[in-house]
Amino acid sequence: MRRLRFVASVGLSLALVALCQPCAAEQERGSLSGVLRAPSGAGLPQVVLKLSGAGETRALVTGPEGRFRASDLPVGRYALSATLPGFTLAHTEFEVTAGQEAQMAPVLAPATLHEQVAVSATRGDAALSTLGTAVTVLDRERIEAIQPVTALDLLRETPGVAIARSGGVGLQASAFVRGGEPRFTRVLVDGIPINQPGGDINYGTLLPLELDRVEIVRGAASSLYASDALGGVVQFLTRRADGATAPDFHGSLEGGSFGTWNVTGGTSGRAHGWEWNAGVLRQATDNQEPNSRFTETAGALSLRRALGARSELRLVLRGDTSEGGTPGQTEFYRPDLDARYQQGDLMAMALLRATNEHVSHEWRLGVSSTHQLSLNPQDSGPYTPRWGDHTGSAGGDWPDAAGFQNDTWRLTAGYQAEAQVARRHLLTAGVDLEREAGSLGERSAALLAPERFNAGAYVQDRLVVGERAFLTLGGRLERNDSYGWAAVPRAALALRLRSGADATTLRASAGAGIKEPRLLESYGVSLFTKGNPALKPERSRTFDCGIEQRLASGRVRAEATLFHHTYLDQIAYFIESYDPFLGTYENLGKTRARGAELSLEAAPLHGLRMSADYTYLDGRVVVSADQTTPIYAVGRPLLRRPKHQASFRAEGEVGRLSASATMFLVGRRADSDFLGMGLDRNAGYARLDARLRTRVARGLEVFVACENLLDRRYMEVLGYPALGRSVRAGLRLRSIRAVRP
Prior knowledge:
Elements: H1 2-27, E1 29-35, E2 48-53, E3 56-61, E4 67-74, E5 76-82, E6 87-89, E7 93-96, E8 101-104, E9 108-110, E10 117-118, E11 126-127, E12 134-138, H2 140-146, E13 161-165, E14 173-177, E15 185-189, E16 192-193, E17 211-218, H3 222-225, E18 232-238, E19 248-256, E20 260-271, E21 274-285, E22 294-308, E23 311-325, E24 340-355, E25 359-376, E26 386-387, E27 390-391, E28 400-421, E29 425-442, E30 451-465, E31 469-480, E32 484-498, E33 504-515, H4 519-523, E34 538-551, E35 556-578, E36 581-605, E37 608-623, E38 644-654, E39 657-666, E40 669-670, E41 681-682, E42 685-697, E43 700-707, E44 715-717, E45 720-721, E46 726-737
Parallel strand pairs: 1-8, 15-18
Antiparallel strand pairs: 1-4, 2-3, 2-5, 5-7, 6-9, 10-11, 12-17, 13-14, 15-16, 17-18, 19-20, 19-46, 20-21, 21-22, 22-23, 23-24, 24-25, 25-28, 26-27, 28-29, 29-30, 30-31, 31-32, 32-33, 33-34, 34-35, 35-36, 36-37, 37-38, 38-39, 39-42, 40-41, 42-43, 43-46, 44-45
């Protein structure tokens, strides 16, 4: 009996020891959690982190808003590193103790030529090196260095983008992304579309007020943004408060050629739980042609309030009102001295964001509106267009005292969720609702009042394969009142062949785009034109591939991209009969654009930076949308899109003084006078801009900016002379913070 009790006692002891061993082992382990942030403070998802120490190595992939976590770690000292081109990871060492979770908030430090972070390509923060899509980002530092007069100036140096302005500041201006029509680009402000329904956008009155950065996505993005994003996306992001308690003040005062003056002022800070940034602008110029005076007043406000540790409310409001003269093609005939336009724009957005350990939620509500009135109250009489040896048919003015009204507005609402699945998948899904309406037509008659409702749902998966491949797959299903149902896919791949300072990355993307008709094209009713409710959406198929190479320990970055875009079912005016005269709109046209984009950026010395961009575009009409106009005939090059264009920029800083110079070279391009003179080519031109600034006190600098320094005579659009040499000088208060008592 004693022997039996002894055996039972020993067995029980051994069992207790076995049960306690896992507990002891568990107590000897810990865990890690944290958020990886870019220098701007944005959390970066889909970044591969390397965790090493205590005899083991792990790869972690950051999730929504840059969150990461590692469990079951042996106690000991660890180091965290990241292989992200253009960034370095500092302050990475930490200690894991038994039964505890280490907390980290590592911040990526920028390299000499630092990486940029974009939101437009994926509808969430993403480092460009993890995207297979071609994206250009202009941050606040670059925007301030360019010293733009209008937002169009921020796109001049972007590869794959051609611009055309009908004369001076404030007049009609367009941007062509990879050979697409201006209406083929989705234009956003803080995520809210500001295109008129159907894609129209006038960059001439869009001023760079309180901008934090600009993002240009090249390639179809309708899988995320639906209508208008056939050729790409341009997004303007508003400046935010930096979270400091004491208010910050900034502004500028400048004047110069052509009676130009500009006053801006802004402030940011934090009070009563709200962070805010606000700015105002007043700008005026006479330009150089008669009846070209342009004036604009604009304001912007951004508010943010934290609603807890992981939720926030953000409000954005932007508005402007402008007026300008429209003298016409003064290179070919006398100016129209009474024609003018008035325009007012408004954009408002409310965003609520909430996150937890697994999912990030975002609710968005926005409204954008454009109010335009074109006036021509007097008959300026007949004219005969002439230019050199060319003479056109006699023409006359078309007075309209009441004017033509083009008022449109769009109400948008959306929800988006983002979550990390199976550690390497970042899933994004959302829905968008849009209500579009307008009040259009000649004010002397009854105005057209069309309305349209659109709804769409999208899903996107960003997958990290191994440690060097980043795959993005997505698609969208859209329901539009004009054309019904449509589905569009998209795929992109970034493959990092080599990491480190001299990284090599291959990129490729393919996608499809759709665009809704203009309101007049679907619902228009007039004596000579009828809308066509059976129109199909205009469509695109886009492909590109490229390589990015960093050299000289990260001081040189070279990039090359090949692209091929096809634009189908383009809507054009079609004459049904001549007696009586009646026309409508049909899906008639097809064009294609293929070419190459080359970029080179270098920082060979401290304080010196140089860059060069070149675009080759072979754009052709495949199926003519206008059989009556030779410029649109099959095989003709695309209107106002140069085959060759390039820019070269150099900027340096020594002590308090900084200077920059940019040379733009734009090749010959197809165009038309549309006056019967037979002109179908616009000559190329070279334009040199230069800027000089010096700091004179804390936060205060004096600057001089000169556009078209060589005073070259050219036309971006046939018949509309571009501005000659323009010099501006002024004071800028970059940032000065008030001292609280």
